[in-house]
Specification:
The protein is of the alpha/beta class. It is 35% helix and 16% strand. The chain contains 13 helices and 14 strands. Helix 6 crosses helix 12 and helix 8 packs across helix 9.
């Protein structure tokens, strides 16, 4: 993955941000009432990592006044959380180029109050980035508003025409480098974050790694390779993902390809994990798990699977091996994280770590334990 072109530093005593170096990619993220929550995962991801947009602020009236990085991960990043669009524009000191809808509700639709905010942004001259299942370019009110304001609306999840979609071809068997899929025991559990951190950490150790995304957030972040699998007709999901993995292999000559997971193989509402396993045919799987999550997110009537049950299902479903477990530390203090890591390792015989609170070298070592051939002379010198 390419190095992010934007960085975010705390602004110190200055409560106004200077106009960005790349104003054509300046953006405000709209996530009212959901920032830091499961249904705000697109906003959460953009605050942590963006290769395309400079994120100037996040709109969430419930968390206004916080630093977005501090609220998410305990480390300030200079991206403020503000109460509404007017405040966000005033803080920027100019009208940013984009409003990104950072909401990711399970139904993928806008509420009426949310529509009002997006239409307000259009009237102010802001382009819209929409990652929902609801395509705004099919909505007469949004189309008329965008034409009047001279702005664009990008529906990130809109798939290509069916005549342009690919079915599985078997070209994946020509990809000679290992593929590692980051799957999970639930949706919105941190798979994309772990995959992103893994690519960065591998690259820092001299291992050529590239990420293939499978959801709208990765595409909005600026990922070079990826497809929003949950918006594609099932007939084409495996083939579309296969094509992205093949393209990443042919264009980047990587040592390893990391494939972002979606949902969970055991989840009754989502099928995307199955297509990921079939289309990318990973040699290894890293499993993301939240030990304190008792029920599936957005589905409180269903208990979370165990690590052991998900590992068994994945390895029965596909010709692959789960090589390690990564912990989502929600609702856990540091001692609880340590205890959870030890418990997972003892109960499952798999290495475990938390990429957000433990050294990223632990995540790389987990991969090298399973794929020692990735250890190059440069990598070995850094060990």
């Amino acid at each position: 993955m390419s190095t992010p072109i934007f960085s975010h530093e705390p602004s110190g005593d200055d409560d106004r941000r200077a106009e960005p170096e790349f104003p054509e990619f300046s953006a405000i993220v709209y996530c009212d009432g959901q920032f830091g929550e499961q249904d705000g995962k697109t906003a959460n991801g953009l605050v942590r990592h963006s290769e395309k947009f400079e994120i100037l602020s996040v709109i969430d009236s419930l968390r206004a006044g916080a630093d977005a990085g501090m609220y998410l991960d305990g480390t300030a990043n200079g991206i403020p959380v503000l109460g509404n669009l007017t405040e966000a524009i005033a803080h920027a000191g100019f009208v940013p180029a984009y409003l990104i809808c950072g909401l990711a509700p399970v139904n993928g639709m806008l509420s009426e109050p949310q529509r009002v905010v997006l239409l307000d942004a259009i009237s102010r001259g802001m382009n819209i980035i929409n990652g929902l299942h609801e395509f705004l370019n099919d909505d007469a009110e949004f189309v008329a508003a965008s034409i009047l304001a001279g702005v664009t609306i990008t529906d990130v999840r809109r798939p290509k025409d069916k005549k342009d979609l690919k079915i599985f071809t078997g070209q994946i068997f020509n990809v000679t480098c290992p593929r590692i899929a980051v799957l999970g025991t639930d949706g919105a559990i941190g798979k994309r974050t772990t995959a992103t951190l893994l690519v960065q950490a591998l690259s820092a150790r001299g291992i050529r790694a590239v990420m293939v995304g499978t959801g709208q957030t990765t595409l909005i972040q600026g990922g070079k390779y990826g497809v929003a699998l949950d918006a594609i007709a099932p007939q084409f999901c495996s083939g579309e993902l296969e094509a992205q993995v093949v393209a990443a292999f042919e264009n980047e000559d990587p040592d390893v390809i990391i494939v972002e997971g979606q949902g969970a193989l055991s989840h009754p509402a989502y099928l995307t994990s199955a297509y990921i396993l079939r289309g990318s045919r990973p040699a290894g799987v890293i499993l993301q798990h939240a030990p304190k999550r008792g029920t599936l997110g957005d589905f409180p009537m269903l208990a979370m699977p165990t690590v052991a049950s998900e590992v068994a299902l994945i390895e029965a479903f596909a010709d692959t091996t789960v090589i390690g477990v990564t912990i989502n530390h929600e609702h856990m203090d540091d001692d609880e994280i340590t205890a959870a890591i030890i418990e997972v390792e003892l109960e499952n015989g798999l290495p475990a770590t938390d990429p957000l609170t433990r050294p990223l070298d632990e995540l790389v070592d987990l991969v090298l334990l399973a794929f020692p051939e990735l250890a190059s002379p440069k990598t070995s010198a850094l060990l």
